[in-house]
């Protein structure tokens, strides 16, 4: 691989990172066939409106609140996302390649103590900000822009396909890269699964030049204790995966690395590969052989959760129709071929096949569960319908974006097959909703749903706090932030120790 390609791969993988969520056709595909004016009324949709990057790092104390912040919410609500820094040519911007910025609100004793937003200090970000970068620059260095999670008292910003995690302190300052006490070799992931029962952090890592993907288990001591190499062809993108009590589930879909696209300068050098069959792999959690099950061509972005049920494995996930093209120069950002919907896949291990069922066909993304139930049976799930995303992303078949479906948050009751909708004002631009259980909660949904939501009346973001058992009711609190939180990717509630 040439140095140019290596750099391009890194950039492309970084972009992909997040969010396979809602990416789409290429500059050489249907999107490019139409003038920009037909695609959107904005010239650079991912630099404007709800996506527009912020230009400052803010610190604000004692934030104004409408309603009351529950006194038991003591911790930090953090969210990561791309926020381009020092962009010289907007035509070369790809939303998913923006430098990671973490936004955070610190809640304590019923108060919104502070808000901060900070770029993740990779070597490139440090240089652009005129700061020094401590220590040697790691390979594939990138300001992780996809997720931010708690890990054994640390806070880690995550990126898939190359970059090491970056550790942040409690005020969102970058501490440095983190390699799990020297035990992580190579790439990590943006989407980990933490099994609270076992105290294990699981990951599936992929990298463009590998002939396999890696299942990593970080043990309760914080070390990568086991690595299992799972052979795959064509270097497929694996943005997320699923974990049950007994199994690891990987999704090998036809979005694969394309060296030619990388050499040609594609920012996101992954293409829909018609020669690459779609399949689901199920591996014992303890390691061992993977059983593969064919599925019709499809793409998935995120798993909500998964669990074992008798001799079957049940996975709830967001999927996209085929083909799902990601490659290209993407001068104006990604474009959706279709919108994400929520499905349930049941892998029957005894009969050897996968059945698929639509749970909710409304456009939505960023599915989340009560994290205490990761790998165990769940009843409820939470997701976001961000109308601004639908407006910005081009439908691959040329149809106009779905403007009828306004911004909203969903609470799915998967036992009843129903969903509640917390509707937000048009232009509210709801982000991912994170569930925080109440202390000593007995019922799965006894807790809070937190989401960063753009408040169009103020031109700034609010941190919305809902009672999850009164999902459609008036929010418990709206914490009013001093600035915008651009539409981004994933985050976590980091409870005080
Ligand atoms: Fe993601």
Automatic annotation (TrEMBL):
Cofactor descriptive note: Binds 1 Fe(2+) ion per subunit.
Signal peptide (from-to): 1-27
EC numbers for this chain: 1.13.11.-
Enzyme class: oxidoreductase
Source species, domain of life: Bacteria
Needed co-factor(s): Fe(2+)
Pfam families: RPE65
Keyword Secreted: no
Transmembrane segments annotated in the record for this chain: none
UniProt KW keywords: Dioxygenase, Iron, Metal-binding, Oxidoreductase, Signal
Family assignment from sequence similarity: Belongs to the carotenoid oxygenase family.
Protein name: Dioxygenase
Organism: Streptomyces hyaluromycini
């Amino acid at each position: 691989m040439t140095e140019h390609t290596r750099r391009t791969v890194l950039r492309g993988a970084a972009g992909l990172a997040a969010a396979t969520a809602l990416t789409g056709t290429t500059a050489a595909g249907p999107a490019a066939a139409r003038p920009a004016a037909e695609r959107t009324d904005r010239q650079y949709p991912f630099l404007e409106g709800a996506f527009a990057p912020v230009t400052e790092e803010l610190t604000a104390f004692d934030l104004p609140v409408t309603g009351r912040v529950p006194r038991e919410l003591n911790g930090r609500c953090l969210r990561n996302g791309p926020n381009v820094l020092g962009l010289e040519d907007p035509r070369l911007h790809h939303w998913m390649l923006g430098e990671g910025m973490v936004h955070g609100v610190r809640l304590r004793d019923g108060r919104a103590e502070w808000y901060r937003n900070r770029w993740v200090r990779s070597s490139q970000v440090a240089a652009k900000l005129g700061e020094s970068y401590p220590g040697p620059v790691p390979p594939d260095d990138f300001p992780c822009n996809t997720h931010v999670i708690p890990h054994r008292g640390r806070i880690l910003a995550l990126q898939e396909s190359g970059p090491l995690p970056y550790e942040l302190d409690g005020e969102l300052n970058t501490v440095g890269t983190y390699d799990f006490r020297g035990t992580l070799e190579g790439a990590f992931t943006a989407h980990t699964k933490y099994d609270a029962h076992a105290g294990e952090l699981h990951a599936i890592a992929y990298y463009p030049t590998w002939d396999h993907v890696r299942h990593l288990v970080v043990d309760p001591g914080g070390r990568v204790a086991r690595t299992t190499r799972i052979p795959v062809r064509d270097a497929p993108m694996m943005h997320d995966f699923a974990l049950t009590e007994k199994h690891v589930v990987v999704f090998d879909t036809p979005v694969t690395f394309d060296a030619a696209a990388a050499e040609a300068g594609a920012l996101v050098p992954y293409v829909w590969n018609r020669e690459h069959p779609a399949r689901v792999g199920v591996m014992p959690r303890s390691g061992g052989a993977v059983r593969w099950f064919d599925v019709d061509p499809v793409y998935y972005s995120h798993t909500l959760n998964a669990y074992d049920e008798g001799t079957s494995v049940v996975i709830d996930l967001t999927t996209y129709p085929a083909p799902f093209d990601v490659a290209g120069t993407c001068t104006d950002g990604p474009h959706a071929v279709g919108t994400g919907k929520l499905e349930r896949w049941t892998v029957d291990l005894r009969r050897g096949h996968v059945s698929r069922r639509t749970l909710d066909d409304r456009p939505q993304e960023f599915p989340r569960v009560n994290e205490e139930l990761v790998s165990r049976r769940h009843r409820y799930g939470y997701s976001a319908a961000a109308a601004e995303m639908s407006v910005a992303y081009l439908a691959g078949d040329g149809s106009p974006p779905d403007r009828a479906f306004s911004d909203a948050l969903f609470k799915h009751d998967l036992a009843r097959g129903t969903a509640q909708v917390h509707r937000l004002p048009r232009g509210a631009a709801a982000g991912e909703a994170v569930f925080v259980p109440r202390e000593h909660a007995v019922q799965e949904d006894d807790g809070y749903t937190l989401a960063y939501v753009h408040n169009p009346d103020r031109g700034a973001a609010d941190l919305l706090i809902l009672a999850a058992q009164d999902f459609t009711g008036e929010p418990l609190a709206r914490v009013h932030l001093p600035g915008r939180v651009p539409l981004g990717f994933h985050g976590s509630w980091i409870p005080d120790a």
